[in-house]
């Protein structure tokens, strides 16, 4: 068991806090509420049947970026990604990971032919940065190939722009219960007084906030073997904190990709940097 201590651990736009909220059994009620609203499913059904798959996929993944959280419910697989900062080719890398999981869904049938198992994969990108070219709070789109054609009916992406939801909230534009519970992730950057005011009246958020405070105060220990291996997440907190508020260079992007296990040849192709610079 490994304890992570940082003044930023209560900020749920960081990897450590986000993964704790979406993976720890104590917060299952919060995640189930997000998924049930997102998929228009019965809450109790989601709570009783949701299953985590990310460890399995991460262990089989050697060349692409690791996912934050992967959850299966019935015939749907949800890939949750918290993106605190924007960097070049962000969407491309996330979609590559979704494609990787899509490829894992094929099996060899009795006729010794590859057949798809029918699972629908939804890549959920939760953005904590301002998206200049997207005015929508929540956008859904299909993954397309180079010719602009739909790649497959089994793969789609959902983009949630928390900064846009926050603007609507502060401008007193009515937001849904679902949007408010998602916005909570971003609001954890605010003062304790402001957070308490935000969660007031929502039982799910009030209970979630109690757990977040315990996490922030060191009363909860994190025990994720995969996410904390080699100190990746601890280093990530410090690096993201220093990087906030400034534009990331290609070299910084390459460093992040390398830390996330992406092969150097692929990093070189995406960033345009030489292999020697990346190493």
Describe this structure in words.
The chain is α/β, with parallel strands linked by helices. The chain is 45% helix and 15% strand. It is built from 13 helices and eight strands. A six-stranded mixed beta sheet has the order 1-2-3-6-8-7, sandwiched between helices. A two-stranded antiparallel ribbon has the order 4-5. Helix 6 (162-170) crosses helix 7 (177-187). The longest helix is centred in the middle third of the chain and has 15 residues, at 90-104. The radius of gyration is 19 Å and the shape is globular. The two termini are 31 Å apart. Mean pLDDT is 77; it is low at 1-7, 55-65 and 223-248.
What secondary-structure arrangement, pairings included, does this model have?
Blueprint (H helix, E strand, L loop, with lengths): L14 H9 L4 H12 L3 H7 L1 E2 L1 H6 L9 E5 L2 E8 L6 H15 L1 E3 L5 E3 L3 E8 L10 E5 L12 E7 H9 L6 H11 L4 H8 L3 H14 L15 H12 L6 H10 L4 H8 L3 H4 L1
Parallel strand pairs: 3-6, 6-8
Antiparallel strand pairs: 1-2, 2-3, 4-5, 7-8
Helix pairs in contact: 2-3, 6-7, 11-12
